[in-house]
Amino acid sequence: MAKRIDKSKLKCNKPRPLKRGETGYGVKKRVVKACKGGTEKLIKFGSAEYRHNYSAPANENFRARMQCDTKPPDKLTARYWACESLWARRKNRK
Q1: Which of 8, 60, 69, 91 is deepest in the core (most CB within 10 A)?
Q2: How many helices (H) and strands (E) does the chain have?
Q3: Angle at the Cα of 79 from the Cα atoms of 76 and 81, rounded to 5 degrees
Q4: pTM to 2 decimals?
Q5: 24/62 Cα distance (integer angstroms)
Q6: Are 63 and 71 in contact, with CB atoms under 8 Å apart?
């Protein structure tokens, strides 16, 4: 049986990887306790199926598909944390 994540032990707005045995392990990559305006929410985000393809073209593609730059998401959504944590903006390197 999977163990539940104790929300009280997590720090606000600090994503961390899901640990083996926790609910959602193998389905999602990370978990965060999102806090905004007195509201706390436990959010699991990032598909475990995406391995290590965080290349520049994949990054641009994801950010365009999820509208990370055109419609800023709310902090209490998985989309926000995927855009900010897993698929953060990249600086152009030449």
Answers
A1: 60
A2: 2, 3
A3: 70
A4: 0.84
A5: 22
A6: no
